Amino acid sequence: MATAQKSKKKGLKGYYLTTFLIGLGFFTMGLMDPLYDTYIPIFLARFVESKALIGSIMTFDNLLAIFLIPVFSALSDRTHTKIGRRMPYIIIGLPLTAVAFGLIPYAALNSLWMLIVLVFGLNLFKQSVRGPVVALMPDMVPGELRSEANGVINTMGGIATIVGTVGLARLMDVPVKVPGLGMQTDILAFPVSGVLVIVAVILLFTFVKEKNAINVGGKEKSESILHSLKVIFNEKDKSALFILLSLLFWFIGYQGILPFVGLYSKDILHTSSGTASLAAGMVGIAYAIFAIPSGIIAHRFGRKKTIRASLFALVIILILIYFHDPMTPSWGIPARQFSFWALLFFFGVFWVAIITNSFPMLWQMSSFQTVGIYTGLYYFFSQLASIISPPITGGFIDAFGFRSIFIYGAVSMLIAFFLMSHVHRGEPEDDPIAEEE
Description:
It is a single chain. It is built from 17 helices and two strands. It is mainly alpha-helical. A two-stranded antiparallel sheet has the order 1-2. Helix 2 (16-44) packs across helix 7 and helix 14 runs antiparallel to helix 17. The chain starts with a helix and ends in an 18-residue tail after the last helix.
C-alpha cells in the first residue's frame, strides 16, 4: 500500500527513466519483428509459390511461441539470481537472437531448408526471451501507472519499427559482396539490426537493476499456468477470460494481414523491396507518436472504453482499405502508395491504443508473483491467433485475391469489439485477483 501511495504522489515522472530503459527490450522486438514479417515471406517466395504454404511456414515462429513464451514467463517468475529474475533470460536470449537474425538473408541465398533451419533457431531464442522482457515492466512500475508506462514502452517499439522499416529497410536495396555469390541485395538490414539489438541489451543490463522492483522481497507464491487458468475460468465476472478471448480475435485479424502487407505492396502497389516495408513502417510511426497519448487517454476515460472505441475504428479503416485498390486505379502509382500508407498510419493509431492498454488490464488482474504467468497467457492467446490466421488468409488470397484479407480482419475486430463488452475489471482502481488472500 505504501508503494502505491508513493507512486501516486510521484506519478509516472518518477518512473520515466526506468520505463525508457526497460523499453530497450521492447525496442529489440520492434526492430526485428517488422523486418521479419516483411521479408521472410519475400525470402520464402524465392522457393515457394503458394501463398497458403508461405502463410503456414510463417506460423513456424508462432508454434514455438505458444509453448515457449508461457513456459519461460512462468519460469522467470520463479528464478532468483543476483541480477534478478528476468535479466538472466534477457542477457542470454537476446544476443543469440541477434546473431541468428543477422544470418537470415545469407541462408535465404542458399536453400529453403537452410532458411527454415535458421528461422527455427531464431525463433527458439526470440520466443524464449520475449516473455521475460515483457514481464520486466510490471515488476518495476506500479499498477495504476502501467498504461502510461506501456505507452512509453510502445513508443520505443514504434521508434524501433520506424528505424527498421523506414531506415534500415532501405539497406535492402544496397548491394553487398557475398563470398562465392558476388554482389547481392536484400541482406544488409538484418546484420545491422542484430548489432543494434546487442547494443540495446548492453544498455538494458547496465542501467536496469531488478533489486528495485516494486514488490521485491514480497511473499513468494508459486502458481502454475493451469492454476492461473483455473482462477480465470472460475472468476465470477469472467473479465480475464473475455479479455483473453477478445485479444485472440483482434490478433486473428491483425496477424492475418501483417505477414502479407509487404507482398501486397509489391504485387498490387508495385513497390521495390526497399520500400515494401514502409506499409508496416506507417504503423510504427503511429506507434511512436500515439503510444504515450493513448495511455494518457485511457487513464482519463478508461482502458475498456479506449480499447472498444479503437476496435470499432479499425473495422471502419479495414473496410476503407478493402475498397482502396478498386477506387484508386487512376491515381497513379505514387498516389496509390501514399494513400495506402496513410490508411495504415491511421490503422496504427488505433492499434497502438489497443496494445498499450490491454496488457495493463490483464496485469491488473494478476499479482506480483504471477505477472509472468499472466504475461504468458496473453502471449498464449495472441500467438494462437498467429498460428490460426496466416494459413487461412493465405488461402483467402489464393482463392479470392489480396483484398479479401481486409474484410477478414474487419470481421475479427468486430467480434473482439463485442467480446470486450463483457470485460468489467482491469482499470487502475481495480484490485488484483483475490488468490493471494
